[in-house]
Amino acid sequence: MNAIALAAIGIFVFILGYRFYSKFVAEKIFRLDPNYVTPAHKYKDGVDFVPTNKFVLWGHHFTSVAGAAPILGPAIAVYWGWLPAVLWVVLGTVFAAGVHDFGTLVLSVRNKGQSVGTLAHRLIGQRGKVLFLFIILILVLMVNAVFAWVIANLFISFPASVLPVFIQIPLAVWIGHAVYKKNKKMLVPSLVALAVMYFTAVISSQVDFLQIDLVRYMGGEEGAGLFGLGAISTAFFIWIIVLMIYVYIASTLPVWQLLQPRDFINSHQLIVGLGILYLGLLFTNPDITAPISNPDADVSWFPLLFITIACGAISGFHGLVSSGTSSKQLDKETDARFVGYLGAVGEGVLALISIIAVITFFPDREAFFATYSSFQASSGAGLGAFIQGASKLAEGLLIPGEVAATIVSIIVVSFAATTLDTSVRLMRYIISELGVEYNIPSLEKKHVATTIAVVASAALVLIPEGPNGFGSGGYLLWPLFGTSNQLLAGISLLLISIWLRKLGRNYMITIIPMIFLMFMTLWAMFQQVFLQWAWYADSPNTLLFVFGAIIFVFTLWIILTAAQALLSKKDPGFEEIE
């Protein structure tokens, strides 16, 4: 099949979904009210609750949810063939992700901007809330470890990307000050900042001394490094510490000072990046060389496909962003459709081009299978295959290969970084909520909660377990990241269903994808975490098993508790909580 035709069909379905399905959900199910006073206005504090233009908020929301996962997951899942991956991305975005992201945003806005974890108290009871908060806490901890691992390795592999990524930080602070202190418009300064980033990318990709290559500074790959760790492990350790210092600062600053302007820059970067890749697709008109399916796969795509592609089809982390930060910045309730549903569609568009970049990169099917020889091999090769494939598409616009690879790596790192510091901020909120729950006042303090979040994340990603050695914690947790992410999405859909049920509204739009997602994810989780750990693994992953067992048991407990709440009588006054 022609790659351009595949992209066109996918985008057409996305357009139909936003134009018609999201409108139906907004008007008939959620019944958005343009006169509703949102939490951003009601509790405005200039730190977390900040009324924000819908385009700026869409930029923050989109780039916070569009981390490396909608690239990495699809790039791995093409191992089973491109058709299952494309179908799950397109249909999952329209009927599951869009409704989930949109729904968690509206639910939070209608309930004081509280997170889905906190709202679980009213929806499924006190015990369910605490269990859900612990599941969320474990998930965001894994998000922090996985994305820090990804960023550190990309900095090591693509040292030319370091300077352009870090130059974005002072530019974002400057934009935030200009916009919120001097009432300047954000669009032009953010475009200037993007131009500076890409100019720096072009220069650094050509000039060696502008490439911050920590491995080279320590004598190359064979260097001893610090404390005998080796050059690569030392470089990885240093980047993790630098990243943790950055996210500590970024997650404690007011959202207008760094988070919003940086994410707005990244939203332009995402649009530019998608434009480059899709235009490159048009100019190169590549053939799809990967197989439509892989009947000889060593593991079945059913049900593993649905956890391998989480972000890009549906992701529970999106609900945390919707209800954790975006709901506190929504200017008008009617903006929720644009921010929530269109944000999910944007991520679907990214996941689609990720698939196309990989399946058109290889010269023939034999070359594809040489790289994607097994599911385990695809897990290690996916991100590299995307960067090379995306660079090949960009070369169709006459962009030099080294420059294209640097720009693509900058895009991946930037998105991963936005997800990382948003996730740390969310983890701080959850720790503070648990402090309130268990009457531990010290945990309610911003810097105490943030310190716990950062230290725990650093410790997890640096765990030296398994054959990968030092710093393999993030990599080892990747299989569990997908399952826990999907379980969280399923629980969030269940909470929205209970909310709609109590309001006497049609909740089929959320309960159907919830049942499908829960079934697939629990099945996949039992397979991957328990069966393979106990019977099939040559070297059992204890870390994966412990985290997985906790999440599995907590999820079953929540489902049983929620089922009782779902079957209870409707309560038309439920929405009015104040």
Describe this structure in words.
The chain has a single domain (3-567), classed as Amino acid/polyamine transporter I (Up-down Bundle). By secondary structure, it is mostly helical. The model has no long low-confidence stretch (mean pLDDT 87). α8 (162-182) crosses α12 and α15 (335-359) packs across α17 (375-394). The protein is built from 23 helices and no strands. The protein is globular.
**Fold-level CATH name:** Amino acid/polyamine transporter I
Order of helices and strands: HHHHHHHHHHHHHHHHHHHHHHH
Gross morphology is: globular
Count of domains: 1
Give the CATH class. Mainly Alpha
Low-pLDDT runs of 5+ residues are none
Total beta strands: 0
Spatial gap, N to C terminus: 55 Å
In which range does the helix fraction lie?
A: over 70%
Family: Belongs to the peptide transporter carbon starvation (CstA) (TC 2.A.114) family.
Keywords: Cell membrane, Membrane, Transmembrane, Transmembrane helix
Subcellular location: Cell membrane
Transmembrane segments: 6-21, 62-82, 88-109, 130-152, 158-180, 187-207, 227-249, 270-288, 300-321, 341-362, 403-426, 447-464, 476-500, 507-526, 546-567
Which descriptors apply to this entry?
transmembrane helix; CstA; cell membrane; 578 residues; 0% strand; single chain; Amino acid/polyamine transporter I
